[in-house]
Amino acid sequence: MATLRAHGIVAPLPAGFEGRIFQRTPGPHGDVPRTVAQFATFPLPDEVGDFGGGGVTVMGPTDIFCTLFEFGPESLGAARFARSGAPSDLTPADFRTTVLRRGLAGQSGTQWFFTASGRPFTFYAVLGANALAARLVPRVNELLAGLQIGGPVPSTPGTPWS
Amino acid sequence: MLALVITESVVIVLLAVLVAGLLRSHADILRALHSLGAGVGDPAAPLDPPATARPVSIGPPLPPERRASSVHDVSGVTPDGDALAVTVGRGRTLLAFLSSGCTTCGAFWSAFADPAIRRQLPGVRMVVVTKGPDLESPPEIRRRSARVPVLMSSEAWNNYEVPGSPFFVLVDGGQGRRIGEGVANTFDQVADLVRRAEGDAPQPADRSGSGGAGSSINLDGPARESANDAELRRAGILPGDPSLYPRSLADVFADPPPGTPGTGRPA
Question: ipTM of this model?
Answer without folding.
Answer: 0.86
